[in-house]
Specification:
Blueprint: E1 3-4, H1 7-29, E2 34-40, H2 44-60, E3 63-69, H3 75-86, E4 93-96, H4 106-112, H5 124-132, H6 140-151, E5 160-164, H7 171-180, E6 184-188, H8 195-199, E7 204-207, E8 225-228, E9 232-233, E10 239-240, H9 245-248, E11 254-255, H10 262-280
Parallel strand pairs: 1-11, 2-3, 2-4, 5-6, 5-7, 7-8, 8-11
Antiparallel strand pairs: 9-10
The structure holds NADPH dihydro-nicotinamide-adenine-dinucleotide phosphate.
């Protein structure tokens, strides 16, 4: 039976560290880290996410601003706002909540956020630095996954790691971070066939797919560490992951639950990156 990796607990430790760092920075330099969240349109899930971020900022002493723009906002209007935030010395981190409405080119917008304020780590300059092994900001979810493994003293070096999902936000950066920590990494996607043959090789299996309970017990090696990034709503409206938790926990050595696993780490790492950004600004 697997040990449950408690993301809530680990994220509390990180938040405490961030709160101490924010206090020290303020005392030493008078700087208060500032985060601006930009939300376009009426996506209820994004609104909840942004509200949670605001609360989290307040708890650790980070100044936060929230911009809610209407669904019909044009790309040039959004650009003006990003420009203003880029040049605002009280703002150290800019977060543009995805997805953006279709009339706006997300890629273009994300490239306009100054790399030095791109606390999500999405700008090509930050992606390049990550690939090189000299990251400025590591995207929050992948960074959170590594922190979870480290907190539980799970060895990465020399292990066989399999990441299912190749998005720029989760899959690819997670694979790169595991590679930098000397795992042997395989990335799977929707055309990997048969998926189970690859996932069964994993000592560390990361599921970042967005498909309810796709990873079943028979796809997991005995004693594997299973990290479930997925957030899906099942037919009863309950949040579930990409992993069949009940079945897989019988076989894994460690497993993250959904909710309460990777999710809380994402917000904690966002606070962490905002503090780091404020420190770089000195
Ligand atoms: P994307 O939709 O961008 O990527 C999903 C990936 O899964 C793609 O690479 C896709 O392959 C792959 N995939 C889809 N179906 C299959 C399949 N049947 N077999 C193998 N691979 C498959 O999603 P994200 O990376 O943005 O997010 C993944 C999940 O993580 C979502 O549930 C999301 O809500 C959640 N999430 C959770 C966060 C947290 O804080 N816990 C933060 C961010 C995301 P292909 O490339 O071939 O299409």
């Amino acid at each position: 039976m697997a040990e449950i990796i408690d993301g809530k607990e680990v994220s509390q430790h990180i938040r405490k560290e961030v709160a101490e760092g924010v206090g020290a920075l303020k005392r030493e330099s008078g700087i208060i880290p500032g985060l601006a969240a930009v939300l376009v349109g009426n996506n209820p899930a994004s609104e909840i996410y942004v509200r949670n971020k605001r609360k989290a900022c307040e708890q650790v002493g980070i100044y936060s601003e929230e911009y809610k723009l209407p669904e019909e906002t044009s790309e040039s209007e959004l650009l003006l706002l990003i420009n203003k935030l880029n040049n605002d010395k009280n703002i150290h981190g800019i977060l543009v909540q995805l997805p953006l409405p279709t009339q706006i080119n997300s890629e273009r917008i994300l490239r306009l956020v100054f790399p030095s304020k791109d606390i999500d780590g999405f700008h090509p300059e930050n992606v390049g630095l990550l690939l090189e092994g000299n990251p400025r900001f590591v995207s929050c979810t992948p960074n959170g996954i590594i922190k979870l493994l480290d907190f539980y003293r799970i060895e990465i070096l020399g292990k066989e790691a399999v990441v299912v999902g190749r998005s720029n936000i989760v899959g690819k950066p997670t694979a790169i971070l595991l590679l930098h920590r000397h795992a042997t990494v395989t990335i799977c996607h929707s055309r990997t066939k048969p998926l189970g043959d690859v996932t069964r090789r994993a000592d560390i299996l990361v599921a970042a797919i967005g498909r309810e309970r796709l990873i079943t017990q028979d796809m997991v090696k005995e004693g594997a560490v299973v990290i479930d990034v997925g957030i899906n709503r099942n037919s009863e409206g309950k949040l579930v992951g990409d992993v069949d938790f009940e079945g897989v926990k019988e076989k894994a050595s460690y497993i993250t639950p959904v909710p309460g696993g990777v999710g809380p780490m994402t917000i904690a790492m966002l606070l962490w990156n905002t503090l780091e950004s404020a420190k770089y600004s000195l």
